[in-house]
Design goal:
It is a single chain. The chain is an alpha/beta fold. The protein contains eleven helices and seven strands. It has a single domain, classed as Rossmann fold (3-Layer(aba) Sandwich). Helices cover 46% and strands 16% of the residues. The chain has a seven-stranded parallel β-sheet with strand order 3-2-1-4-5-6-7, sandwiched between helices. Helix 1 links the parallel strand 1 and strand 2. It is globular and about 60 Å long. The termini are far apart. The mean pLDDT is 96. The structure holds 1,4-dihydronicotinamide adenine dinucleotide (NAI).
Length: 262
Amino acid sequence: MKGKKGIIFGALDENSIAWHVARKCVAEGAKITMTNAPVAFRMGKIEEMAASIGAVAIPADATSITDLENLFQESMKILDGKIDFVLHSIGMSINIRKAREYDDINHEWMLKTFDISAISFHKVMQTAVKLDAMNEWGSVLALSYIAAQRTFPYYGEMAESKALLESFARSFGYHLGKSKKIRVNTISQSPTNTTAGSGVKGFEYFYKYTQNMAPLGNADADSCADYCMMMFTDLTRMVTMQNLFHDGGFSSMGMDPSIMNS
Ligand code: NAI
């Protein structure tokens, strides 16, 4: 990671997956800026966390093109050059927060969910292209969840958000690959005990279920950060337009006799 410059979205507190990624990338020699929504600067610990690893935190609502333009421009100044890697680690659903059932969804909130959790990924990449803010052979990554492919009843419209997110990775992966040799992927992560994760109804029971179902158990935030970092290194420079499961094997399981009998 030495010499690489990155922008990491989505560190709210020490549990955030993005925080694990930020720490590891800096420890391995990368220079980064960290960012989150202005409200997270008031409620969370991003500034304190960024300072502890010598990084600058820049507020940006990921749904605002103006904020994103400022973020990329400031980051290029602070890091003294173009960006090599970007982590999109953003998710939010008011319907989930308010425990709305799937057949009683507020559609205004649904659109907000799509904007924050998925369309923001397109906005980030489009802004990077328009500002010519990324180096060739760069790597762009977002975090997803298997509800994009299979039904998880309490995940609300986040399921469709993740499907959209993964689709943006494939579509933009084509354009960025052709124009700049930049790769775009999503990592589909195990349930993880964070603010976003634990906000989903029944999280604790569900976490135990997938822990037992996955042959390796649930992948934690720290191992997710290892995988993210690998995707930013040159070792994965030919991997693009993929949704990569990081879930201890859960996604390949059909049934496990030990769970059936318990
Ligand atoms: P987290 O709650 O720590 O991170 C979510 C982040 O999104 C927060 O930092 C929040 O401030 C940020 N955010 C919300 N609205 C925003 C906006 N308008 N602009 C910029 N940032 C905004 O939770 P976690 O788990 O670290 O989530 C990171 C990613 O991982 C999300 O995409 C989530 O869906 C995904 N993921 C999480 C899993 C879990 O079980 N925790 C499982 C699979 C994927």
